[in-house]
User: Fold this.
Amino acid sequence: MIHSQLLRWLWFKALLWLYSIAHVGFGQHSVQAQELTSTLLGRGTHWQTPIYIQDSGVDGPTVIVTGGIHGNEPAGSRAAQQIKHWPIRKGKLIVIPKVNVAALAADKRYTPGAEDSLRDLNRNFPFPDIHDSPKGEIATALWNYLLDQDPDWLFDLHEGYHFNISHQPPPGKDKSVGSTIICDRQKQSGVMTERMLASANDLVTRPDRKFLLKERGPKRTTLASAVIHVLGKPAMILETTHQFQRIPVRTAQHRAMMSTALVQIGMLDKDCANVFAPPKSSSRDIIYVALYDDTGASENGVANLTKAFDADAKLEVSHLSSDQIKAENLEQFDVVVFGGGSGSKEAEAIGVEGAEVVRNFVKNGGGYIGVCAGAYLCSAHYTWSLNLVDTHVLTGKRLVEGQGEKSMWYRGKVTKQKMQLTEEGQKVFAGDAAIFDVKYQNGPIVSPRNFPGLKPYTVLSWFRSEKVLYPPQEGTMVNTPAIVMGDYGKGKVISISPHPEATDNYEAMLPSAVKAVSRNPKF
Ligand SMILES: [Zn+2]
Assistant:
């Protein structure tokens, strides 16, 4: 008797457990109703490129967003990467962030290797009385895909080289269309374009850099003009300006205009201009990386880091300005990265508030990677440093005979130095004990600071040679740590003195470092 009661009870418990699993499973699924699927345009070709599709399952418009048709306009492509994560409430959002992959990789406007009549991809689309069908493989594949999807809207993200409002072109040259919304007055609501304009201009303080509406429509044979004049559907080109504005500024402008447009169309029920990544959950199988790209970070350094991260399909990088180092932004990411330039200027740019945001992000489980200046920034050495890892920095002024007082951190121009991974470093970077050359440019020479509350760091790599500019520096760099890793709260920090991201064949050390400090259990 007792036996069968126990069995019944066990059965009951098992059913409850099954129900809870099913219920939790269902609940999680409905939280991320907007599942992102992807396919490839031009599958199997050298120009194949991902198409991301978010189908809400609710009746509504189909909106297509394209970026990277011109390869030297990266902000449109990067903004589109972020926009694909926005939680739409109805209809279907289709995002093609890197339409022209080869041009993007070459950082060129025109398609590399294309014959003259095809080189500008945004002049290859059909237009009444010019050409009925698209020209060239990429335009043809994209146009056929559009015909198949029959979009209600198209937004094509671009960048100009100068602000249209203030550009004074040389005689005979057209004004750049930078910082404009190019639309067709006949084809879309004036309220919507005015609101999009206002949302972009909310981000712009200088009058000579404000956005303008260009209502005469996109140039003939552009993708947007084809959607307007062949499909008879509304389309716009959203142009930011790459001169004088770094990527975070430009992508923010694209996102602001797109968020306003999608709210207006009814696809979004809230502003998503600051949504960079999908909600954090155990099912994320991409590591989302915030890369600081503003005052103090060298543009060349940011470009090298971006390239290293982009090469790893498991990483998705977003560029953040100093103003964007906010808790609600950083918490969307797994890892934050500060690269080369000037650590003190990076600290000054993010300010005391930004520094606290970064410290809290790591304390709560975020990862931090500092390269060169970023390694100075995370040290426990300076009044302005973040105190994330227990490093003392070799610095201070010494009298150098015949040269006066010299700062000891400065060792002159970029050189190659020898480096060797420790056993821990071999695990993190999937390398061996062989000594190899790595670019070095005045990265910090560190030793334990023994700062109260900070745990000792683990050395991942040693310098096995040194760069000496002044005699007192002799013997102070060789056999000191080149890369160290430490814990801060629930988070992890890797401080990298040299530049593997700028060293041929060692670029992948950067994605490896990101994976090592990410708390995503899948990596
Ligand atoms: Zn363009």
In short: The CA atoms of residues 290 and 428 lie 20 Å apart. DSSP finds 13 helices and 21 strands in the chain.
